[in-house]
Amino acid sequence: MRKIEARSVIEAVRDLCIEANTRLPGGHLAALRRALEEEESELGREVIERLLQNAEVARERCIAFCQDTGYAVFFVEMGSEMRISGGEIGTAIDEGVRRGYDEGYLRKSIVRSPVDRANTGDNTPAIVYYEPVPGDGLKLTMLVKGAGCDNMSALRMLTPAEGIPAMKEFVVETIERAGPSASPPLTVGVGIGGPFERAALLAKKALTRPSGEPNPDPEIAGIERELLEEINATGIGPAGYGGTQTALAVHVESFPTHIAAFPVAVNLDCHSHRTASTEL
Amino acid sequence: MSRTPIHLETPLSMEDIEPLKSGDVVLLSGELYTARDAAHARMKEAIEAGEPLPFDLEGQVVYFTGPAPARPGQALGPAGPTTASRMDPHSPMLVERGLRGMVGKGSRAEAVREAMRRHGCVYFGAVEGTAALLADRVKEAEVIAYEDLDAEAIRRLVVEDFPVVVVNDLHGGDLYTEGRERWRRRKP
């Protein structure tokens, strides 16, 4: 049984918080540059140029490129032949978030309850999803999730008879309704299948996939391409000022579901698409 | 931005904003006041209680933002616009009291747009997610009210060439609607 010190987890999480908030992932930057070439609206191109300049300034000065430094969401793959020593993993992740958000000059945006709305002061608790995997590794994938775009996300329980056409229509409808509020150009996470809550989780996890990497299932990859085309035909464009680049990528994740069900969840991510990952 | 920008100095007069058209690129210099969800809720309470507001609204521009902490040497931490529609329930009462501009992102409710046309107020979009760039244009920042709200406190900023785009002008123009219709290639 391999041991990993809780201390190492704390440090890794702190570093992920700072990295994810100050450096856009390479794949996402490449997608923005491609969008700059393809965008037909002049104002749209100017918006994308500003986004690229902003990313440069943030990287050079190690400051957050968006003030909404979000929920700290973690997908944790825990090897079954590994254990954490000197502490508990959830506590270690929270401590890493506390340090990362303090040392990285990141905004603390979490309130302890939707009712009293008192800020927890350190951006904890982290939102953590654990997945047991074979082996003795520990992989931490962070998604910094801003609220503006998360607020525009949606879930619908379709029937099997409504099927794929209704699923696509719902995805595009969600983006039409969000309009400029989700801060396009977007990365779109779609979860289909499972019961209610699984679809939502899949949609969120889909956002952590490297930008534009297709689903390994060719049929689903085809749906991703069709959705991207449909979304870019809405005309919403960069910052919602109008244009041809409303989304940079659509990632669909699928899971087994019930004979009577076709859940679909859409989780939108703004152009400050922030993910980072590390293995211990 | 490369379109010829219009330079405006705050506080704004009616003459300043009357000629503006949706889609115009504007560089704002002078004072901006930050306020978002919680500060708006407090200003509403103050108005209802007949108490004075933390600053005189006449001709001023409110910026919907909650900055991240500043690093030493910076006037303000990263500060991009937040979604303006959350302020929709509160904006008309400020517009009625002389507010001449708002800076945020996302569409406004018809009630807000109507109040803006009637009382003379323009809604500007700042490019969301360019918080590091926008903070660069902030030369001074001080908390003037509701300090306990931290990122949501009201700050008086002094900005230089702060880049915004006119979304809603005084003549019914709406950049979000016009831009989307111009580039739409599918039925709504």
Strand tally of chain B, please?
A: 7
Determine the N-to-C terminus distance of chain B.
30 Å
Content-based structural category of chain A: alpha/beta
Which regions of chain A are unreliable across 5 or more consecutive residues at pLDDT < 50?
none
What labels would you give this structure?
heterodimer, A: alpha/beta, 2 domains, 4-stranded mixed sheet, 8 helices, globular, B: fumarase, 7 strands
Topology:
The complex is a heterodimer of chains A (280) and B (188).
Chain A: E1 2-5, H1 6-22, H2 26-38, H3 42-61, E2 71-79, E3 82-85, H4 89-103, E4 127-133, E5 138-145, H5 147-150, E6 154-158, H6 163-178, E7 186-193, H7 196-206, H8 218-232, E8 247-255, E9 262-269, E10 274-279
Parallel strand pairs in A: 1-3, 2-4, 7-8
Antiparallel strand pairs in A: 2-5, 5-10, 6-9, 7-9
Helix pairs in contact in A: 1-4, 2-3, 6-8
Chain B: E1 6-9, H1 14-17, E2 25-34, H2 37-48, E3 61-63, H3 91-95, E4 101-104, H4 110-119, E5 122-125, H5 131-136, E6 138-145, E7 154-168, H6 175-183
Parallel strand pairs in B: 1-2, 2-3, 3-4, 4-5
Antiparallel strand pairs in B: 2-7, 5-7, 6-7
Describe this protein's structure.
The complex is a heterodimer of chains A (280) and B (188). Chain A is α/β, with parallel strands linked by helices and 280 residues long. Chain A has helices spanning 6-22, 26-38, 42-61, 89-103, 147-150, 163-178, 196-206, 218-232; strands at 2-5, 71-79, 82-85, 127-133, 138-145, 154-158, 186-193, 247-255, 262-269, 274-279. In chain A, helix 1 crosses helix 4. Chain B is an alpha/beta fold. Chain B has a single domain (19-183), classed as Alpha-Beta Barrel (fumarase). Helix content of chain B is 24%, strand content 26%. Chain B has helices at residues 14-17, 37-48, 91-95, 110-119, 131-136, 175-183, and strands spanning 6-9, 25-34, 61-63, 101-104, 122-125, 138-145, 154-168. In chain B, strands 2-3-4-5-7 form a 5-stranded mixed barrel. In chain B, helix 3 links the parallel strand 3 (61-63) and strand 4 (101-104). The mean pLDDT of chain B is 94.
